[in-house]
Specification:
Order of helices and strands: HEHEEHHEHEEHEHEEHEH
Number of strands: 10
Helix content: 25-40%
Strand content: 15-25%
Largest sheet: 4 strands, antiparallel
Shape: elongated
Strand order of the largest sheet: 8-9-7-10
Oligomer: single chain
Length: about 220
């Protein structure tokens, strides 16, 4: 899956000429912590809530009202915006974008084309939605969790057993815990018992919360 297929395209943006007080209002209205700044279609920067709050006079200011109004009427986004914005191209794989966000502790990434034109934005909410989609939760079915050897062909074998029982696989996922490979399979059935029984018969180990309780208790 690619970032360009999952990015948010209805993005609230500013221009460098936007007043900082209007940026503050937009953040409040849309409950955003950051806004991207465009000049035409080109991404030129970003403004965070922290940037805005630092720039706006506090309630303890000694400025007279007319001085304050004069300042607020002229303070524009280009005076406070960050010009370096974390971004990725739309062909970036979704998991690579997630790794960048995790490694750099980012809430999101701007998505731009090769010329710097802003196409959209991808954030942590999108990543969570992609995870739910990839694991097939919304399609129903049942979940089977298998502790397997980390060897070539193991997922192919498990898939073959399920296929031979006439059941469709909705999604699969692989996770690692304490050096063990855990395969999660969501199958299109309301009762996974026959599949689970068959997997055990051929030597696979099925696991559930009780097998890991020591890790969180």
């Amino acid at each position: 899956m690619y970032v360009g297929l999952k990015m948010l395209t209805d993005v609230v943006t500013l221009t460098p000429a936007t007043l900082v007080k209007d940026a503050d209002r937009l953040m409040d209205e849309h409950r955003l912590w950051m806004l991207l700044v465009k000049e035409g279609d080109m991404l030129v920067g970003s403004v965070s809530r922290e940037d805005v709050r630092k720039a706006l006079p506090s309630s303890a200011t000694t400025l007279a009202r007319h001085e304050l109004n004069y300042l607020l009427a002229r303070l524009t986004v280009d005076k406070i915006m960050q010009r370096e914005v974390a971004c990725v191209p739309p062909e970036t794989e979704i998991e690579e974008a997630a790794e960048i966000m995790h490694r750099r502790n980012l809430h999101g990434l701007a998505v731009v084309d090769g010329t710097g034109r802003l196409l959209g934005y991808i954030n942590r909410n999108v990543m969570l939605d992609v995870l739910v989609e990839e694991m097939g939760l919304r399609q129903g079915g049942a979940r089977i969790v298998i502790d397997v050897e980390d060897r070539t062909g193991v997922i192919h074998e498990v898939s073959g057993i399920i296929k031979d029982m006439g059941v469709s696989i909705i999604a699969t996922g692989t996770f690692f815990h304490d050096g063990r490979r855990i395969v999660v399979v969501r199958v299109q059935t309301g009762d996974p018992t026959p599949i689970a029984k068959r997997l055990v018969e051929v030597g696979y180990t099925l696991v559930g919360p009780d097998h890991f309780r020591g890790s969180w208790s």
